[in-house]
């Protein structure tokens, strides 16, 4: 066959890029587990009617059919019953998993889930059709205290912060609260809250004047109400003073509402805890409107500082009804990291690199094919002590074997001891092919310096 | 919504089962990396015409369509051009990846790949529609020495052997060699080698008499030739004597062929190396015929001892042409572990268990909601030293908080120090809720015994 070309929207990495992705996933997993989140995976498919409960995502779903499906038994294309689609996020499958397994789970249930998701949209501006998400959620049975809305973004701040050492830029987690926005709008006398949110969501794109006009046209606002909404959206900050600023603004406009009070208490608690545990990372930003139509409390977005145009790499919020079986309601709060978007920037933007593209720290040279088993024995001895090793592909000239190691970034080449023509026995030697230094070595005791043992993922300039 | 029910053929695990699967994957990954295999992932989809190059698998492919696909631009169902399907193994995508990235890879290229695959077949007798495979392959550019056919099953023997400590039964890797079979048949004068192999493949199902009849009817064999083929198929053993037995049989039937000599040299080398490095694990079994129609050299199947009816959990072989771009041919050898089949038996058969279902070793109790930040601070201090911790969901009575830990299998509950009514300050205490023992503890120095730190995966009877 001819050389295949990549499929747009379906990213794949060379081994070095995969090392970066794997490292990111390992760090996330470790942080999530340190915080007591249990790992689960769900199947890649869900019944189509389950995936389409949020109407707006219908265009994104990949539907499956079996190639040899019996045409007589195949459902009509317009009949969704029984058809399967690929999940487009990990929240819908998780909600289904919770309902399906509720009797076997202890609530509040803390889980992390790292899997691929698929969206059938046209690939553009860094959007993928297949990508990895890393989610954490806490879900309660019946109720879920607010403190989880404080805890979860701080877990993500820690997880993303742990990536700083490999060269990931600092992150800023922007938070808002549906209750603050809705309470403020209702206090002003505006009732079409979703229309106001839709307008505010366009602020960065179309600017305040156009948004004010939208609020008047589509949300039934007066000029004064629209101006008040824009004033609210202009408030941001990383300490509790933002609560006072919102209160002062609400008083000035005569906007009072119980929901606003609840929301401000919540947002204040989040900002206070964040200032203590992750100073400078969490910023209340009252113009965040995306997601406020379906989240019911806190909402989170996360930008890489200096790469804001990449969009949010970690978003989420609180749902009062993540799932319900008619008897019990399961509220949840969670965030989802767009791992592929992040890794794509780290690798594609040259921010991060792996110190080599293969696991092996050592290539054991082969003197002659008949002696391969001696080289194998050295490899076995080194691996027994946790050192990654491969044996040379052939008994080529040593120069060629060294070049083979060099091309793959393997730092050490091991040479077997030899008996020379005079019967003098020389022991094994190991060569650091970067420095050229070659020293006697014993496979049962030698080890490479810790920094050479496994490939490391490091800042690209390091 | 009503409580959902599982989809047949799409296995999912509760958190405890996922811990078992994750442990298996971690052990495999570590072994593969110690042997210098680089990890890659490929996209879940391939162009349909690529997936259908092996005609016999066409019925298994899940084809994708976008739900809102423009009907005018949608390809006709009979038109395969441009359509995408989910991969049904990791070999086809790997072959494509090698061709696509050949300029960036160093050959021989060693890779492992652990991913889900999908097959649209009706689920039955332990067959899944979605399952995890763990593959290792070595692929060369132009040529690939035979010694890799010796090395790769030994890597799998080591990987599966490393699972013995969690209660995985011992494995037996059965090997055969296309060249031995083909050379023997041709030496006998039989030319329809694939027909002979198809007959021999039915030996376990229909018995030797029926196979002999098949060989006569469908492979054009005489009764004597059929009998010789059955004699060959009856040879098995884990030492080099099998080579002599085949030679003796071939001489007795006057079967000589260059391919037979080459194959016996290869098979002998494999059995000899295996007897040294993994005694008792690798068995030459000359009745293994499955896969010999497309493999060109060694072929491998692996059974769990005592669970042979489960079928092969790790299969593979050598392809002289894993991929080809018309200029360069890429031969490969590899094996694939059916991880879901294995884990399903381990969990479903009660062979293996996790010591708890959540990562947390410690639940930090909350005395009163206003003091939650004190509990959070203890959790931060413990996590800083690598101890997985969660904080109690609410400031319920301590008995209820202990029951919460107990239900989740968390072994330790941490209580904050208190100042009593007389102003006497008591320090923090930690309780092992299994023994009831409660001792003073300092969050900056206390640590649980190593065996309690993380959930462990252990034999179920242990």
From TrEMBL, chains A, B:
InterPro entries in UniProt: aa-tRNA-synth_II, aa-tRNA-synth_II/BPL/LPL, Anticodon-bd, Anticodon-bd_dom_sf, His-tRNA-ligase, HisRS-like_core, HisRS/HisZ
Subunit structure: Homodimer.
One GO CC term, this protein: cytoplasm
EC number(s) stated in the UniProt entry for this protein: 6.1.1.21
Catalytic activity of the protein: tRNA(His) + L-histidine + ATP = L-histidyl-tRNA(His) + AMP + diphosphate + H(+)
GO MF annotations in UniProt: ATP binding; histidine-tRNA ligase activity
Superkingdom per UniProt: Bacteria
Family: Belongs to the class-II aminoacyl-tRNA synthetase family.
SUPFAM superfamilies hit by this protein: Class II aaRS ABD-related, Class II aaRS and biotin synthetases
CDD domains: HisRS-like_core
Keyword list, A-Z: Aminoacyl-tRNA synthetase, ATP-binding, Cytoplasm, Ligase, Nucleotide-binding, Protein biosynthesis
Protein name: Histidine--tRNA ligase
Residues annotated to bind L-histidine: 89-91, 119, 133, 137, 290, 294-295
UniProt-listed GO biological process terms: histidyl-tRNA aminoacylation
Organism: Cellulomonas chitinilytica
Region Disordered, residue ranges: 435-462
Domain Aminoacyl-transfer RNA synthetases class-II family profile, residue spans: 15-359
